[in-house]
Design brief:
By secondary structure, the protein is an alpha/beta fold. It is built from eight helices and eight strands. It is globular.
């Protein structure tokens, strides 16, 4: 299972076409700057293309001791031997995914509102992603409404037994309040894919996390 400390700076990849230059080089630079976990999310590539890219990504991350999680794609996760798979509320139920992947693969689950809390149960779910905390429509057009810091804190309290990462509109300036509200990690998408320097972006988030985390 992925250890709690690995969730600190959680990079969710954007579609490869949204990066400046080579996708893998951008992710590698972000890892060098302080990213501690990567979720591979790619809505534009073919299955074969995603498989080839995931193999390269996994090799790079394993050499650096950084876990790799696949976004929803159980076939891809199992094909490459990823560390985990992350589910949204419209994906396969967590209990079904657990039967497919077995006991050792980490399963994450997105929680977008208080009603979703009931879908998180052990041993099917190992960690939760709570959000969007702030507006996430610039990254995902169909993102759920932002819940705000108070909404995040309330849901975090309901899921106190799970490692929890916050996602949605997070900046280094906002990160300190989110970590103080109980986040074990910061999940970031466009702040990396749109960054002139992914390494500098990662350093900013890593510093914000370290400066607040107990």
């Amino acid at each position: 299972m992925i250890p709690r400390e690995a969730y600190a700076v959680y990079l969710v990849t954007d579609d490869p076409s949204r990066y400046r230059g080579d996708f893998l080089e951008n992710v590698e630079a972000a890892v060098a700057g302080g990213v501690t976990l990567v979720q591979y999310r790619d809505t534009e590539s073919s299955d074969r293309g995603k498989y080839a890219r995931a193999l390269r990504l996994l090799a790079m991350l394993r050499a650096r001791g950084v876990p790799l999680v696949m976004n929803n794609d159980v076939d891809l996760a199992m094909a490459v031997g990823a560390d985990g798979v992350h589910l949204g509320q419209s994906d396969l139920p967590a209990e079904v995914m657990r039967r497919l992947v077995g006991p050792s693969m980490t399963i994450g689950l997105s929680i977008t509102c208080e009603a979703d809390v009931a879908t998180a149960s052990r041993p099917c779910v190992d960690y939760v992603g709570i959000g969007p905390v702030y507006d996430a429509t610039k990254t995902k057009a169909d993102a759920a409404p932002e819940m705000g810091l108070a909404g995040f804190a309330a849901i975090r309290g309901m899921l106190a037994d799970f490692p929890a990462v916050a996602i949605g509109g997070i900046t280094p300036e906002l990160a300190r309040g989110i970590v103080a509200a109980g986040a074990d990690g910061l999940a970031i998408v466009s702040a990396f894919s749109r960054a002139a320097s992914p390494a500098e972006a990662a350093r900013s988030f890593a510093e914000a996390f370290r400066s607040t985390s107990p």
